[in-house]
Amino acid sequence: MGRLRILGLGAALVLTTGLGVALILSGAGVLSLSSMWTFFDTVAGAILVILAGAALILVGVHFLIQLADERLNRALFHHDGEWGRIDLSPVAIKEFIAGILRKDIGLEHFRILLKHQIDGVGITVRTTLLPDQRVTDVGERIQRELAEHVADRTGVNVSSVTVLVRSIRTSEPGGKNAIGS
Question: pTM score, two decimals?
Answer without folding.
Answer: 0.55
